[in-house]
Every structure is written in C-alpha cells, then in structure tokens.
Design goal:
The protein is an alpha/beta fold. Helices cover about 35% and strands about 30% of the residues.
Length: about 210
C-alpha cells in the first residue's frame, strides 16, 4: 500500500506544520529542502507530502488524490466541506473581520452597501444571516484599497494584528469567524485507512 499522502499549504503554514512534524520526531529533511520537487517523502518515506496552494489542498483532499491536508480555516469556510475537519493545530491564528473607514456608520443606513472581499462566499453567508442586502465586490489584491478609492463602503478580510487596517484609516466593527490551521481528511481515506490516520493525528497533537 502506498504511504499516506499529506498536502501542505505552501508558505507559513507549511513551515509551522514541518516544525510540528519535527517535534513529533519525524524526519523532515526532504520536505525542508524539496528543490523543485512538489511531491517529497516524509519520515523516510513513511508518508508522502504534496506542496500546494491552499485552494488546491482542499481540491486534492475532496477528490481523494491525497488522504490528508493542512489548510487554514479561511479556505475551508470559503470553499466548502466535502471532507472531515479533524484537528485544530492552533497556529496561523487570525480572524475574519468586517472593517469600515473611520467615521462610517455601516449598519445604520438605508442605502445598499458595497463590500470588497477576497472571500465572497464567507461574506455572502455572513450578510445573509444578518438579513442585509449587500453588493459584494471580489478583489484579488489589497482589499484595504477599496474604501480608499471609493469602490466600497467596507471590507471583509482576514486580520491578524489590525495594523494594516489602522494604517489605511479602517476600523474593525465585527468579528465573523476565528481562523487557524486545520487538518482535513478525505472521507474515503477515513474509512479505509482510519488506523493509520488516527496514529498520525495522535503523534502530532499539540
């Protein structure tokens, strides 16, 4: 049987996950120095690691081409959940926030508000639960620019310290969700390789 395959989100979450694996006594030499390889052995080949962007981690787990993924809860909330979310790793902590320009009363107005975001599904669900009619504008780059340019009345975005918001004249007015790195598992893998997956999770639990 092939080794369990784990998709890691490239970047900060990848680095933190590798640190976690090393604390659990796993050999991460190949993962730390993959060269141009995107699929590398972990712990002497006991596991196999795929290095991918966050949205692709979700796709790979859902489609069953990998067994396990490590991804931020922001991507989980935005992209759906056809998998098991089994462990909160605690790192990569931040929060989804609604933020508006200083001096703007976002809620007490009759006009239709415009909100810029990289996460339209998360934002749409949040405003639907509040019964608010909002025009959502998808932005790929710096969302904070949108109110400054007059494109939007507010933004929904990930916030860690809030410094970028404050530097651009924005303030947080409501928290939508807390975010951190999560372990997700393919539904079929959870049935067919449950013992192996459980052993891995027990080994890496903080």
């Amino acid at each position: 049987m092939k080794p369990l395959t784990i998709a890691l989100t490239k970047g900060r979450l990848e680095k933190k996950t590798v640190e976690l694996f090393e604390r659990a006594g796993m050999d991460c030499t190949d993962v730390k120095s993959p060269g141009r390889r995107l699929i590398v052995p972990l712990d002497g080949g006991k596991y196999q690691v795929v290095l991918a962007k966050a949205p692709d981690v979700i796709t790979y787990v859902e489609r069953g081409v990998v067994d396990i993924g490590v991804v931020g809860r922001d991507t989980i909330l935005e992209q759906g959940q056809s998998f098991y979310e089994v462990l909160d790793l605690g790192f990569g902590a931040c929060r989804f926030m609604l933020a508006v320009p200083n001096g703007v009363d976002f809620f007490n107005t009759y006009k239709r508000r415009r909100v810029a975001t990289k996460y339209p599904n998360v934002a749409a669900q949040y405003f639907a639960e509040r019964g608010m009619d909002v025009e959502l504008i998808k932005i790929e780059g710096s969302v904070e620019l949108s109110p400054l340019l007059g494109l939007a009345d507010g933004i929904v975005d990930l916030v860690e310290t809030g410094e970028t918001l404050r530097a651009n004249g924005l303030r947080e007015i409501e928290e939508i969700a807390k975010i951190s790195a999560r372990v997700i598992v393919n539904t079929a893998s959870m049935r067919t390789r449950k013992a192996e997956i459980k052993a891995l999770l027990e080994n890496i639990k903080l």
